[in-house]
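Bench notes, afternoon.
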Amino acid sequence: MPEQPYEPDRVIAGTGAGGAMDLAAGEAETLEKTPGGPLGTGPQGKPRSLWSDAWRDLRRNPVFIVSALVILFLVFISLWPSAIASGSPLACDLAKSQDGAGPGAPFGYDGQGCNVYTRTVYGARTSVTVGVLATLGVSILGSVLGGLAGFFGGLGDSLLSRLTDIFFAIPVVLGGLVLLSVVTSNTVWPVIGFMVLLGWPQISRIARGSVITARQNDYVQAARALGASNSRMLLRHIAPNAVAPVIVVATIALGTYIALEATLSYLGVGLKPPSVSWGIDISAASPYIRNAPHALLWPSGALAVTVLAFIMLGDAVRDALDPKLR
């Protein structure tokens, strides 16, 4: 048989469908061996979950990184305030009343001669404690009530909806003035209890809507058809897919609760002296704003930065967990 002439064009064109399939298979094999894989997949080409995708986006978001660093610093000084502030926040010297910055007191002194820097550092412990515990209480109570109402529906769902309407009609600050004015305890627990009492309806509605949406998905219907119990469907199939909106709202609400604690303490119905709180310091420094503005600006600035950090963190988490924003 005569030898066929070499034809480059014919060789390339002759790959045909089979050649294209071989090329595609080779590319797919290469992608599987590449760390990270193609978009939407993890190592070895395995599909990533919502949480792994969210964490991947968060690590690349500078807003999340900055806010997380600020929050980690706040948590650190809340646990170990003596690491960066020496002395007691209750140690005051009237001879130094309204003095400016000096050795050991970079923020100066307030009207009672207390070290503003030390009180600002120790005030972070109260604010972070109230914010975190109130958020946990609100999230747990609201998620349980809203999740059960959304899953089972019926009369319980209707009653919960009307109950949340009643709580939404109560002004938060006015409710705090009325309820906390009769409390004589000087701890953070009455303030946390008040926030949980008036804060759970918001989380409850978010959780209820998420559970109703997740309940209609095909995998839940398939689990029901296979005989899965209600508790298994709630905990195994619905809760993991309905918790993302609750996390977003709770993260943003944490900053709101910190600001609410400062507001109530400023009005005199939240924490009271000798407790150390940014709200108490802002209230005590307000009459001396002309003579000693530093006593007001530093705790106010710390409060503003803290609230802003949690709000920025919540926005970053929302953007990472919302598939529509990808």
